[in-house]
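User: Hello, can you help with two protein structures?

Assistant: Certainly.
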Amino acid sequence: MKRWFCFGLFLCGLTAARAAESHEERGTRVINQALEALGGEAFLHMDDRVESGRAYSFYNRQLSGLSKATIYTRYLAPNPGKVAQRERQAFGKNQSSGAVLFTEEGGWDITFRGARPLDDQRYQNYVDSTLHNIFYILRQRLKVPGMQLYSQGSDIFENLPVEIVDITDADGRTVTVYFSQSTKLPVRQLFKRRNPEFKDFEQEMTRFAKYRDIGGGVKWPWDVTRDRNGEKVYEMYSESVEVNKDLKDDLFTLPGDIKVLPTVK
């Protein structure tokens, strides 16, 4: 009885201590717990990553494309307000069906015909999605001046107790992230972006599931699903994820002899 009484006092003390936290303090605590759950220093020192699996795209709720996809990502030195990573998305079993290359300077759609620069809006959408991505924020942006963390408290998401945190940068970008109370890992994020054609806002929501250790204590979600305005637009089911593969520059640069095609207008 004495032991249970002491345990009860401990829980009461813990509850009182958390109740005394400000929204900012609670948000910081949840974010730090998530970072530690993802691997802590090992996550922060992840230089590059290779994800391979099945990718699906959807249009008007119908499957519009599927492919074997391999995504190569390499982190650069943090640059406030800019994307500090390079990414190559290759498609097909032998990566022979083309690729899309994103760098800090622009993007290209690469086929057997040559390399075509991505239009401004498509590249800007990539930049916007990356700057809002919780894993990119934790790896590259958490210490950027002006970053604010604000807890919305706890809730239930799909029968899972979660902590909800708003992350806002100095330019006013906000992403709302749901973290599992048990694992401390991100399970959902959502943000809004302005649609340049209709001048309204779109809401993009991404779910993360099936976390696994991918080496050195780093955890990563193998299932990623993305919705836009309530409609599914993308799914990625990884079959392999590896980190620190010493990816070379030539993977993220255009060959000198490749034909550069005009941008589609």
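That covers the first. Now for the second protein you mentioned:
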Amino acid sequence: MGKLDGKVAVVTGVGSGMGRATAKLYAKEGAKVVLAEFNETTMNETLKEITSAGGEAVAIRTDVSKEEDVNAMIQKALDEYGKLDVLANVAGIFDGMASVENTTNELFERVMSVNLNGQFYASRKAIKVFKEQETGGTIINVASVAGWLGSRGGAAYTMSKHASIGLTRNIAAFYGSHGEGKIRANVIAPGSIATGMTPSDPSDLDALGMETYAQLGKYHTGAPEDIANAALFLASDDSKFINGEIMTVDAGWTVR
């Protein structure tokens, strides 16, 4: 028996890193997974890995910054599997630690559109589905420790992750009582994860102007699977009494 047997999950950003690891683990634990990703090549690689391992999944190319793409993504779950139980908003981009004065309008708008707008569009559509099907559902948003600290990303990235946490907690507050708490929303705040988006070696810090990181001492780097494990817990019935929580996954980095 898998922890997600009988559940239907949509996962964004499945082409690599945390999104791919989460989609694979969900499928392994029995979920039917809708894979959403901008890069069709990497999306199809993930699809092949899941189906080759005996999992069930379908894929749809999705630009999460576009509402019409996000709506089609949710509709794909309904068309293929007849319902939606889990939405895991994992897709995200980094801003290279750009300070306010070095953040162009183009960079700001791109980071916010992917990291925040995508989560908002998907959550809004999913909540409507959850209410209509009367069985509820759960939303897992991936933010960052930059969502509650000021020095773990550039200006746009930090703003987007703060907003992601605010969005998640607002959803939990507004909808947590619907159907006796059947709609839940929680957020994962990863620390440094080896995904290719951020440096995994202390020697790379200076190149990004990340002196603050260096001052913290040992640079702990986790694996995408560490985030996938947290996303599995929050998607499963094991967390049925958890709503509006910020789950920090950083090996204790931020307590220092």
